[in-house]
Specification:
Elements (H helix, E strand, L loop, with lengths): L4 H19 L12 H15 L22 H11 L23 H9 L7 H8 L33 H12 L12 H7 L3 H32 L3 H28 L3 H8 L1 H4 L1 H15 L5 H15 L1 H12 L4 H26 L7 H22 L9 H18 L39 H13 L1 H4 L10
Amino acid sequence: NSAFPESLYQYQTSSSLSTRRQHHKPRQTYDLNYFFPSLLFLLFHSIALILPPLPLFTHTHTHTSAMSVEVTPSKQAAAALDSLKMESPVKKLNFNPADKENQPLTSDVATATEKTDVQTKPTQEVAKNENKIVIAPGIKEHEKDEPLLQENGQRFVLFPIKYHEIWQMYKKAEASFWTAEEIDLSKDLHDWNNKINDDEKYFISHILAFFAASDGIVNENLVERFSGEVQIPEARCFYGFQIMMENIHSETYSLLIDTYIKEPAQRTYLFNAIDTIPAIRKKADWALKWISDESSSFAQRLVAFAAVEGIFFSGAFASIFWLKKRGLMPGLTFSNELISRDEGLHTDFACLLYSHLKHRPNKQVIEDIIVDAVKIEQEFLTEALPCALLGMNSNLMKQYIEFVADRLLVALGNDKVYKSSNPFDFMENISLGGKTNFFEKRVADYQKAGVLNSTKKAQEDTKVEGENGGDFAFDEDF
């Protein structure tokens, strides 16, 4: 029996199942997809009955009759936009007066803007404004018709050149470019320590102290006044180049003081010469007075700064040329040749601009400016030269200043005042070409190759402009 219990169970189970299958009827099945839409409808209908109705955006209008307005989707969107408040953090800031255009318009302003028509200027008023002459601030009433000072709509475009003499001055300055790194000061310190006495050191250090500050004053005038007042592009080219060269001059003089003066206190004293040396302070005050003077005309200020570069600098240049005559300080004397040539060109440029002015001061005004500058320069030289040096003293320097002042007066159309002769033979040929031996690295009257040649050739081409159609010509170095 124990061998067949599992078989017996399987037999009984299978027989019972077969018997039930014979008597069992198949069940009826239903498809749920048939009832799903009805069930979904009943669900939403029940929710609608239970919950309160949702509010809709409505946009009502006030009319004379109490008619209801149909709410459409577009009106709902418009009402929603009206209800929004676009408040960004920027709009909550306190606006400056210049930023008022960024603020949202109030309802009153917006209404006024919508109702106000654009006001147009009358044709006569527009024509009047177009013909109105605009000049820089500080220009006097009688100078409004000066061609150099009137607002020039073509000042941003350089060609065609209209003032050829002024343009030639710029090209001449461009051809004379140099940098402070070209000055060799390796031999100067030996001469300073071994060949120059204390009186000469005192004199030279005061000269360098004035030079170190003076170029910055000249640049102050160019940046603050002249560059904004003169409107012709040819002159602005020159002024832009002059500003750069004055920076190089100032750097060179600072390097000279740094090389020769080793004591920090003495070096600081010279670098602050405008505040520490009264005679230099007086020269600086005289120049600064003309920069800030609002009562003087452009012509007067032009003459004043011609005196600064033509008179205030001339005595200092002569003193350093005196060292060259003695064969001392080759780096200092070479830089002096370069700088004196540049400053002479700047003075000539001031005289050239003066010749283009229609309204010039009377000769007495010009003479007073020059004479005043001569007195201040003579006081400075008396203090800088307290004792006579070999071939150099304050009286000779005063005479030389008068000689230079007479030359400047003549260049400005005046007569000589002092009628003094040149007391220094070594200054006679300064305006001539520099002479140097074959082994010297460079002469002080060098020019950049091709710069002046190109301008000369351009002048020749201008004469035959009709033959070549006015085409721009380049020189061989281009």
